[in-house]
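SAMPLE LOG
Freezer: B-3
Tube label: C17
Construct: single chain, 353 aa
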Amino acid sequence: MTKLDSHQTLLAINSTEWLNLCARGSIRMSKRRQVITSNPASDREMEKVYASAPFTKMGSSVDLFILVIDDGWIKSRKGHRSNPSEILLLSLSDVRSHHPLALEHLEYYRNLGSKCGVRLEEPIFEQSWLYWITNETIQSSCDAAELLQRAFLIHPFSEVKRLDRYKWNDIARLVLRPDDCIKAKAAPIETLLTNIRKISDAVASTRDSEQFYLASAIEWIDIRLNKNPLKKKATREILVAALNNAKELPLGVPSGQTSAALNLLAQTYPKAFTSEISPATIAQVVQLSNESRSKKLKPETVIRIIDSLDRNSPTASMITFVLATFLGIEFTNQLVIATNQIDFVEINWETTN
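STRUCTURE (predicted):
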């Protein structure tokens, strides 16, 4: 590789800008949006390219294009009358190559570009986009968690040091991509977040009654320790009685008998639980996950669960962080607004993002 092509100048533009560039032949452009990178560019360098782009819907690759432009376009193009030192005209002749972000959009936009004599090249930046959007989503989750925790007077996660050597970014990654492995020997929090769907499927028949707490905790112990509490003579009778009683009770705050049975599980299987994950926590995390993903979560459910927690506890920090990651920043913001009303407002799940 020669010195001349060891670097490249990249520019990220949205679909409206690209279509206008193709049709008009030039568009206004701030010279600050170009980014000089190595060739090929690293993921870190591409983050600067994407961060300089217009804000688009999170995770949507259809909204962005990457242009490889002439290194000297700033010097060769005249400025715009409103701000000639900052705003320049970007011409089609300044563009060396045009690239969509994803292969799935290539043919559609290639056909549109060809009508204007513009050839759309292969999507060579897709992997760096996935790296960028993962990091952006994690940061967005952290912002959402802090918003939710401050609204409910819970100690912000950013001031809470985890004791299991996981970072909070790891927790967000586990929620967003539960199939990804963080550590070879998973701690309880990783085991829980990667097995939410398995627990949910196993206890699906109990999700509307108080049995849900007990069934979730029993399934968790089986997953974590490979032990079935219902097969242990010392706990079987108490658990069966509690399960039968809970069957007739709607899901809400656990009754005395259910709470006693959950405490028994904690005492009998201490290695299954931590200061962050109690027997009741399993059902709470599974419920919040299910109702967030199915867009059925109600503000009163969140308030009930949070009110059952010690707001200074590791459990409160973890549950609200995980919930905010399930919801994302837009729905978390709606949830905070909804819970601040005298009469609860339903979350609008049809928001554009």
